[in-house]
Amino acid sequence: MRIVIAEDDALLREGLALLLRAESLDVVATTDSPTTFLSAVDTFRPDVAIVDVRMPPTHTDEGIVAAVEARRRHPGLAVLVLSAYVEQAFATDLLAEGAVRLGYLLKERVGRVEEFLSALHRVAAGGTAIDPEVVSQLFARSRPDSTLSLLSARERDVLALMAEGLGNTAIAERLFVTEGAVHKHIRSIFAKLGLAPDDRADRRVAAVLRYLKDTQGRN
Questions:
Q1: Sign of CA dihedral 71, 121, 130, 4
Q2: Are residues 108 and 6 in the same domain?
Q3: Residue after which a domain boundary falls, among 130, 145, 174
Q4: Overall domain count for the chain
Q5: Residues 96 and 144 both lie in one domain
Q6: At 186, which CATH number?
Q7: Both 151 and 98 in a single domain?
Q8: Rounded distance, CA 81 to CA 125, Å?
Q9: pLDDT tens digits for the chain (219 residues)?
Q10: Do both 203 and 110 map to the same domain?
Q11: Half-sphere exposure of 32 (CA within 13 A, CB side)
């Protein structure tokens, strides 16, 4: 796995590089600005880019803008975005560009090495990894008359774990239920949200996006 890191905090940037190299992953470049990040992506064609949300010069949304541009230039690029705290609009902007091969984690998650590496590998393999805290805060803001109010409490639990990027087996283990039960809950979620039975992976992404966009529209 070839990785480019874009992080203006030198300590975190080098710490990430050391961690990933210790796991026998190939960190081909580390950068500290959106411009050098995009140049590195063009040059090295990595499998995954790890990008900080806030970067120079204004430390607002430069990282998100650069990540979106990198995916536009290289559609197969997996992106794992790191943020110091939940920034809902930025997460939704990225997901709106396509949730496949995309992750959004809080920086504190990096210290939980197994969770961080699991998310990285999931994103590199074509999945989605959304920080549990991001999902938790989004669900906490939902209104009673939201479309998602049609879901049962257990279905909301399942959707929250889907939003983290977990598959059926992992969801079953987290909720202490069978995979068959998870499958039934997911089918019910799709039906209640009016998602047609086309591609299963696409419907999972659509269900998560439905929630994120619904929440963004209320803030």
A1: negative
A2: yes
A3: 130
A4: 2
A5: no
A6: 1.10.10.10
A7: no
A8: 16
A9: 999 999 999 999 999 999 999 999 999 999 999 999 999 999 999 999 999 988 888 888 888 889 889 999 998 899 998 988 766 666 666 566 556 788 888 888 888 888 899 999 999 998 888 877 766 665 555 544 466 778 888 998 898 888 777 889 989 999 999 999 999 999 898 888 888 776 554 688 778 777 666 555 554
A10: no
A11: 7
Please write down the HEC assignment for all residues of the chain. Answer: CEEEEECCCHHHHHHHHHHHHHCCCEEEEEECCHHHHHHHHHHHCCCEEEEECCCCCCCCCHHHHHHHHHHHHCCCCEEEEEECCCCHHHHHHHHHCCCCCEEEEEHHHHHCHHHHHHHHHHHHCCCEEECHHHHHHHHHCCCCCCHHHHCCHHHHHHHHHHHCCCCHHHHHHHHCCCHHHHHHHHHHHHHHCCCCCCCHHHHHHHHHHHHHHHHHCCC
The pair of three-digit structure tokens given for residue 61, joined into one six-digit string: 């949304």
**Cα distance between residue 165 and residue 4, in whole Å:** 22
The answer to whether residues 7 and 85 belong to one domain is: yes
What are the tokens at 47? Answer: 């499998």
CATH assignment of the domain containing 119: 3.40.50.2300
Residues 119 and 166 in one domain: no
The domain containing residue 37 runs over which residues?
Answer: 2-130
